[in-house]
Write a structure and sequence with these properties.
Number of strands: 25
Structural class: alpha+beta
Pfam families: Hexose_dehydrat (PF03559)
Distance between the termini: 63 Å
Organism: Lentzea cavernae
Number of helices: 10
Helix content: 10-25%
Protein name: NDP-hexose 2,3-dehydratase
Radius of gyration: 23 Å
Domain dTDP-4-dehydro-6-deoxy-alpha-D-glucopyranose 2,3-dehydratase: 38-240, 273-472
Amino acid sequence: MTTLEEQPTLSRREDRSLPARLALSVAATDSGVQMRTDEFDGWLKERADAYSFEVSQVPFQQLKGWFFNTDTGNLVHQSGKFFSVEGLRVRSKDDQFPVWHQPIMNQPEVGILGILVKEFDGVLHCLMQAKMEPGNPGLLQLSPTVQATKSNYSQVHKGSPVRYLDYFAGKPGTRVIVDVLQSECGAWFYRKRNRNMFVEYEGDIEVDDDFCWLTIGQVNELVKRDNVVNMPARSVLSCLPQPQQDHTAQPDEFHASLAASRDPDKGALHTNSEVLSWFTVERSTYDLDISRVPLYDVPNWHRTDKEIAREDGRFFRVIGVDVQAGSREVTGWSQPLFQPHGVGIAAFVVRRFAGVLHVLVQARMEGGFIDVIELGPTVQCVPWNYQHVKAPLFLDTVLQADKSTIRYEAVHAEEGGRFYEAETRYLVVEVDGEVAAEPPPGYAWLTVGQMTDLLRHGQYVNSQARTLIACVNAIG
């Protein structure tokens, strides 16, 4: 006898309760049931004092497990895992820099950047980690629950397992809120991507001493401070869906325009289809030839026993470090790091149109991007590198901005696991008529909501612009 096939149960395509739940956590700038915000500094210092941390620059020959390949000159690990330092050649249509060569990190594996969330007293809290990275200024910063490359979580280093990894690997009872592949710094990584994840769990979770529960609002408060929240955490935070908007309690016109910028019903200069079409044209028409080359074949760079650097001292250098860190899965290791010359600038120029805040983004080319172009900040550079050449557009607008027009300003470190004291000054600067509604080619005005929509998909928004979205969300 034939039986009818049992029909599967259908679910809603979108969780309609999520925006309100996120809004409640965003509004909670303190926690009544977990760590209070005024307790955070003491907790972070306690975690720093609990272990011995030491980072020392050493000659390349003292890097344990690393060597220069005799055929290519590439700096590689004996396991064949982790990453390598290779050469890159880029030919572009840029009149100022039509061809350039540089070292680049090649790490052909997808890492996991994941924040575990759970409700306490009806409010979502994020499980955050005090994580030591050798390149971090101050070493210890607030990071996601899990921040690990595949080499790390598959224990190539033969150290202890990555804590809480199972929650991001399909553990029963978990619910995925966000899971999207995003690029890392395309100027220094070759096609590097990470899964940016938010996962909710309702059951009991044992909390290690190096972890704490914070609301999204508490984390946003910490994003306003220099060098507290690390780059992976900022990246994951930027990928959160838009919380439910409250238009009734905005403190001033700027915050009202920011709330309107997140509201799809308030309109924008360009429709979503127009934005995607503009961006597709930018990607499809950009003429670029990118080739990996042996590190030996990178001209105008030299290698000593302690560094790989440009002969003119610009941009960055490659150094070696020896690390001791009692809180990590492996308590001691060696590795190369990239060290930039100078503090960077990453800025959104923002402007109100009909009461709706828009951010000025650029279709930015970086040699390490898979798709050549991603949306970047209005300005993204290290000004020191442009002392004797033409400066990027809008750099003067940002550097000469009156303090009253700066809506956000903080210094944040880039990824401390690969970059040594790589700091960037992040700014949100409001302008009026001095930047036209019709921007130069390669730039476009988008609302915050449109940027958030794009962040649901991978490799549209670069890492610096993602940090700036996290900063904008921290404003209020």
